[in-house]
Amino acid sequence: MAIKKSELYSSLWASCDELRGGMDASQYKDYVLTMLFVKYISDKYKGDPFGAITVPENASFDDMVNLIGNAEIGDKINKQILNPIKEANKLNEFPDFNDPNKLGKGKDLVDTVSNLVRIFNDPSLDFSGNSAEGDDILGDAYEYLMRHFATESGKSKGQFYTPAEVSRVLAKVIGINQKNSSNQTKAYDPTCGSGSLLLKVMNEAGKNIDLYGQEKETTTANLAHMNMILHGAETATIVADNTLSRPAYRKKIPVDISKPMKEDPISLLSGTTNSTEILEQFDYVVANPPFSLKSWSNGVNIENDEYNRFALGVPPEKNGDYAFLLHILQSMNANGKGAVVLPHGVLFRGNAEGEIRKNILKKGYIKAIIGLPANLFYGTGIPACIIVLDKENAEHRKGIFMIDASKGFVKDGNKNRLREQDIRKITDVFDAFAELPKFSRMVSMTEISDPKNDYNLNIPRYIDTQEAEDIQDLAGHLLGGIPQKDVDSLQAYWDLFPSLKANLFSQLRTSYFELKVPAEEIKATIFNHPEFVTFNKKMHNDFDEWLNEQQTTWNNLDKGFGIKEAFEISAQTILSHFENNALINRYSMYQHLMQYWNEVMQDDFYSISMDGWKAGNEYTRLVIKGKKGKDGKIAQDKDILGLAGIEGRMITPEMMINYFFKKEYESLQDLENQLNLTQEALAEIEEENSGEEGIFSDLEKINLKNVKDFYKVRKAENASKEELKYIKNYIDTQEALGGITKLIKIAKENLELKVVAQYPLLTETEIKDMVINHKWIPVLQNALNSEQEKLSQNLTQRIKELADRYQQALPTLETQTAEASQKVLAHLQKMGLVW
């Protein structure tokens, strides 16, 4: 059975536990990912002469396993396994598995490395079965680890991790797709880190693209190289070196030495007598450079840069943001597209940066700017932006498209994260250049260059995202009544439910209303109103039509289908379905679908694509991993018994019970209810009779054996029939409890046997029905229910808020205050305290 993401994640994080404490997360990630790499290539390519990766003889993961407990395990892994893999595949250096400073000395190192290998030596971690088209389980695992490593370490993680959600936005806004990419298309990341951005570009291009990256840190560059291989980009070129001082991708062009060099040397010049070296130029460039790098100029010949990168201006000595941006521009060909993540300061900082920004804008190279939420990136909480670059027809560009996406995110621990709905909204709006209030607009170069703006690109200058102020109404407070302007602000509801307004409000006086129903009945009035009921019913009917369409599509899924393409159809159609809905946000419904896709449907789609619907016949028995004891030995793994230990690949035991064994489960529930009632009865007897004057007061402990012995003693002592009957009742109840417990055990065992026996008997029709109609569709129906509930809840809360705000007018409050004051004064007079 192919490995699931959840199983892989738990194993990976367990491997981190072996190393955590001895070193920083930014260091132990290298060991864990190296182990993951060796395990993966061994499972996928060992013995395959035509594989994308060469696994040398005696240098596989199995050979690592054979070294467990060996006193020289670290040195042997380095020399006998990792070095041959490195040489055979032209990789950079792997981390040192014999480093006592990081892994411990002597026996500690042997134990740590042995346990790390042992964790990956798990039958459930078998990657040979993961062969479905689009199966990106290693990519998902990599992102999982990168996110957790970055979270764990307090150090800046910009050098190796760009949040996956941001990478996806960058890859989409450069405009690459399978139609416009070819084997000659080239993409470049000058600060590639571990390569995630380049891989996202490849995902959009459909692999018809050559990838090039440069990364300053050698260990991180090696991660990028491994990452490329694991994702089928074996031909990608990754260089470990400083991009600004020693750019790896250069080419020579002939030049006429009698003519000055242009700042954008793309075309060949005629009548040449010499040549010069320029940066290699690419179709697409993406980057997330280190923010505001202070040491950017080390090794850079600023005054006479051989690559002519600073023709538009020289960045400040201690801030490298524009140094990277200028390098990117010089690395784009005449029609090149690019996207780069930079801190917001690049949009408005003055002096040298302001002059560079003006020169870039005059060239027309900036196509769009997307403002992102604060606190997205690890190592910094400052907000960033995506600058979208495009040289094609740059000289004719009349404006810049701006998006303020700063408010679309979800809290994730101590960081913020873009949701699926945020990513989709950004890319949809960008693709259409759609102008949405408080979110996006096309800003003309005339407006940007106006002296009052002076080429300042700070997004709030051009997009007002401030929410309308909820202004208090003085007359409403003085005289009472809900202002008409507040009622009219809910017009979107009244347009759909025209008579609901009259049911909720009545006119108090000109331009003011009062509530016709008690505050506690507002929600019921809304939810039960005929127009609201009709609206809900229609929305459910329409949604059921969409579900029926998806049901037909999903029923036709078969082994080998294109996973991402198939699901993208569902995602697009749910957006289209709610496009014109005045109250339900289509991106909220999209979020529900995507969240369920990430949590459940994705694994199911992969299973169907790999093995067809028969994957629903598969289940496994879960085990508890044996832990290391005080003697250093690892305890044997143990099966998790009962239904809790069964995990179906696509169908859970609970689904199986609901579908086939409802009566048996109901009988089991009845027994468990009887058990609870019996336990409550026993607890009541014990509580009533365990005190000093209770029947069982002389017993040290109340249990069945002691009470039976006590019964014999009291019977011999001729205790009253009432007392003996009470004691006998306790004994009978305890014995009944034991009997019920045995019946429950038998019922559970029988139910488990039936469930296990039913898995291989499932027909394809039954599997489809269970997965589609009893697993996927109910979740999506509940999503619509939750949005409808939110809709009525929002309206209810707003009306209650307005009613509470203007419930008591000032004169009424003054009268009540005066009356209260008189009562207090009268009491004080009675007490003789006031004369």
Please state the average pLDDT score. 86
What's the Cα radius of gyration? Answer: 35 Å
Cross-sheet strand order for the largest sheet = 3-2-1-6-7-9-8-10-13
Q: What is the CATH topology descriptor of the domain at 1-135? A: Ferritin
Distance between the termini: 92 Å
Major β-sheet profile: 9 strands, mixed
What is the CATH class of the domain at 1-135? Answer: Mainly Alpha
What is the β-strand count?
20
Number of helices: 28
Instruction: Name the poorly predicted regions.
Output: 154-159, 265-272
Task: Give me the secondary-structure topology.
Layout lengths: L4 H15 L5 H21 L15 H5 L7 H17 L10 H4 L3 H14 L16 H16 L11 H10 L12 E4 L6 H10 L4 E6 L2 H13 L6 E4 L9 E6 L18 E6 L2 E6 L33 H10 L1 E12 L7 H13 L2 E6 L12 E7 L8 E6 L5 E3 L2 E3 L2 H13 L7 E5 H5 L24 H6 L2 E2 H5 L2 H6 L3 H5 E5 L2 E4 L6 H6 L2 H26 L7 H15 L8 H26 L7 E3 L1 E2 L13 E2 L6 E3 L4 H8 L1 H28 L14 H13 L4 H38 L5 H42 L4 H21 L5
Parallel strand pairs: 1-2, 1-6, 2-3, 6-7, 8-10
Antiparallel strand pairs: 4-5, 7-9, 8-9, 10-13, 11-12, 14-16, 15-16, 17-20, 18-19
Helix pairs in contact: 1-2, 1-6, 1-7, 2-7, 2-10, 8-9, 8-13, 13-22, 20-21, 20-27, 21-22, 22-27, 24-26, 25-26
Key phrases:
835 residues, alpha/beta, Ferritin, nine-stranded mixed β-sheet, three-stranded antiparallel β-sheet, 49% helix
